[in-house]
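TA notes, week 10

Several of you asked for a full example with nothing omitted. So below is the full record: structure tokens for the whole chain, then the designed sequence directly under it. When grading your own attempts, check the secondary structure regions first.
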């Protein structure tokens, strides 16, 4: 009888052990379609050079890290906010480098590019005002990171401006011109953008360059895009700072009839977020 009692006790112990092992394995397995809600703890960790830290722009819901080495200028962006990720992937983004340290949009990388045509990116026809169809407004929070990862993978074309006749124009990011590398991917619940630009492609550099990041809003016929907020002129690592001046003005908001009750934050899709950062070159 004692042996039988011992056997009966062994079964639940084995069950608990297996259950714990399964639970631990699931907990350690990354989930690609994690909730697309902004969460700073989900921002991918990576090794940045000593002294370089990510900077948060509250208006653009974007973290960024900008720095250089002897040969390259690096631009890294991290977006965990669900709506901002969707805005960048569907409306497009621009990164500009002004070697005079001002805010000139002459030399830059346009990527990702917004799709052309009357169909709104994500499905359906634009409404009468040129905005998204109603079902996209009501369901924008339900877009998973799995869907966004697929959308990011489809963004393969970039447009380069101001780099010289042999480089300026459209390129596939998988076959970029020598000296420029751009990637875009979903890591965890974060959209991660990386650009690396060779300094010898930028011309005669001074001690300072300005880097502009433009996350575009929906362009409506007759309205264009709408710059929202103060433009995100921010500080950063020691030796850097914003150029003089600022992008000001409160966001005018979308035209009447383009919004639906219950989705007040969708107006952000119509706002263009602009970040300018003045980077001191150390190499």
């Amino acid at each position: 009888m004692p042996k039988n009692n011992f056997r009966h006790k062994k079964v639940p112990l084995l069950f608990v052990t297996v259950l714990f092992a399964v639970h631990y394995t699931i907990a350690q397995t990354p989930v690609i379609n994690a909730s697309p809600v902004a969460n700073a703890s989900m921002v991918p960790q990576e090794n940045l050079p000593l002294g370089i830290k990510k900077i948060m722009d509250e208006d653009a819901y974007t973290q960024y890290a900008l720095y250089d080495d002897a040969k390259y200028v690096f631009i890294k962006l991290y977006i965990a906010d669900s709506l901002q990720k969707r805005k960048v992937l569907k409306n497009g983004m621009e990164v500009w480098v002004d070697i005079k340290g001002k805010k000139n949009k002459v030399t830059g990388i346009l990527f990702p590019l917004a799709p052309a045509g009357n169909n709104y990116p994500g499905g359906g026809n634009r409404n009468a005002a040129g905005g998204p169809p109603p079902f996209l407004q009501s369901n924008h929070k339900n877009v998973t990171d799995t869907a966004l990862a697929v959308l990011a993978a489809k963004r393969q074309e970039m447009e380069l401006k101001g780099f010289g006749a042999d480089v300026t124009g459209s390129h596939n990011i998988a076959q970029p011109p020598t000296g420029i590398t751009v990637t875009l991917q979903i890591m965890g619940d974060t959209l991660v953008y990386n650009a690396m630009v060779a300094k010898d492609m930028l011309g005669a550099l001074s001690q300072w360059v300005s880097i502009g990041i433009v996350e575009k809003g929906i362009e409506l016929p007759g309205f264009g895009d709408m710059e929202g907020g103060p433009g995100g002129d921010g500080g950063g690592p020691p030796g850097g700072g914003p150029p003089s001046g600022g992008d000001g003005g409160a966001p005018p908001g979308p035209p009447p009839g383009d919004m639906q009750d219950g989705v007040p934050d969708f107006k952000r899709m119509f706002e263009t977020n602009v970040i300018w950062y003045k980077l001191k070159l150390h190499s």
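Residues 119 and 125 are 5 Å apart (CA to CA). Use that as a sanity check on your answer.
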